[in-house]
Each structure stands twice: as C-alpha cells, then as structure tokens.
C-alpha cells in the first residue's frame, strides 16, 4: 500500500471575493498538513503577510517537520497576501484601509475558509500571526472581534501610537493570549512612518497588556527586524499554542 499521502505537503492558492476591498478580492495560500483528511477538523493559523510567512518564514516547512518529526497534531495554515504598497494603509491601526481590511478578514475571509476547509471554529482553535505591522493588525482583530480571535503570535510588533490607543481603550484583556518577541538590535528601525525603537514599543505594549490582564509570554533576544530572526523563532512561537506541551492552554 502506498502511504506517500501521509507525508505529502500541499499548498493551495485561492482568490477570495470581497465586498469591502476596492480590488474586489484577495489572494490566500493554504497549507494542508501531511495525512490531511476532509473529515478531520484542524486548528488553524492565519498569517498576515502570507507570502512572506511562507517564503521567508518557511512556516509550511516548519509545520511539516514539527508534525512528521516531532509528532505534533496536524494543523492548517492560511497565509493572507498583501500589496506592499497598501500594507501600511491596511495594517496600521490608523490606516485609511484598516477598517475595510479588518472587516474583510473577520466577515469574509473567515467564513470563506471555514466553509471550504475543515478548520475548527472555536476562537481558541484559531491563531493569528504577524510580523511588525502584521502583528499590529492581528492585535486590532483580537480587540475588534474578541468573539473570533483571542490568540496571536507577535513578531516585533509595530505598536505605534494608534495601536497603543486601541489598548488603552480596552477595559480588560483577560481573554487575550499572546506570544511576543522583539530583537534587541531593533532600536532604530527605519520605517515608512519614521525611525522607531521597537524594543521600547514592545515593552510599552507588553506592560499595558499585562496591566489589563492578558495572558502573555514575552521575550527579547539578539536579532534584527528581519525574517532571518523571525524564521528561527517560529517553531517556539507555534509550540506555545500548538505543541505537545503548550504554554497557553485552552
């Protein structure tokens, strides 16, 4: 009997129609784990900057190895593409397209994926992941739609003033579970909005989240604001939620 399907890695691309986005659609890519069966339900990871998470973060490669070699329970990954020219407008909390993108994500993308793939629909079975402004928009989704999103991975989050104001407006973050990391060499990162000390941005966001009751794991390590740093941290980040001995329990 040929059991090659048990080790097969599948990545499928789709175009999701949208009433909110001016372009009328958004591309995604979906990783299906080895041994995928349509009658089994799976936890799901939704990644901002989907192309970068797959190409530079190598998230599908990490997942394949963890499932096959480390005996993790399988999970599905959905990478949501972004036009880099519109990224700040969509991801920054005060961006012009931010309300449209977050509504697309919660009201169109999520139902589309859940109607076509056997992903689990409980908020504790969904995990958001984002780097820099991708972490900021993931936080926005958790704050705006707490019934849908409560768990996230933050890789050097770009928590500018607008994100901090979002946090200040929250009475409680007791339902939020967040894994955060920032590189110690990210003290003068030049972005399209100016030069920022990401270590301080993340320390300030962490303190406010903890003050409001978030369940939080925070790390600072040697590293720059680059995928070369984040790629190596992804297995630990995923393990905190999906591994055999998670930090965050349901």
Automatic annotation (TrEMBL):
InterPro entries reported in the protein's UniProt record: AB_hydrolase_fold, Esterase-like, Mycobacterial_A85_antigen
Q: What SUPFAM superfamilies is this protein classified in?
A: alpha/beta-Hydrolases
Q: Which superkingdom heads the taxonomic lineage of this protein's source?
A: Bacteria
Q: Which Pfam families match?
A: Esterase
Spell out the Gene3D superfamilies in the cross-references: alpha/beta hydrolase (3.40.50.1820)
PANTHER family with a match to the protein in the record: ENTEROCHELIN ESTERASE-RELATED, IRON(III) ENTEROBACTIN ESTERASE
Return the protein name.
Enterochelin esterase
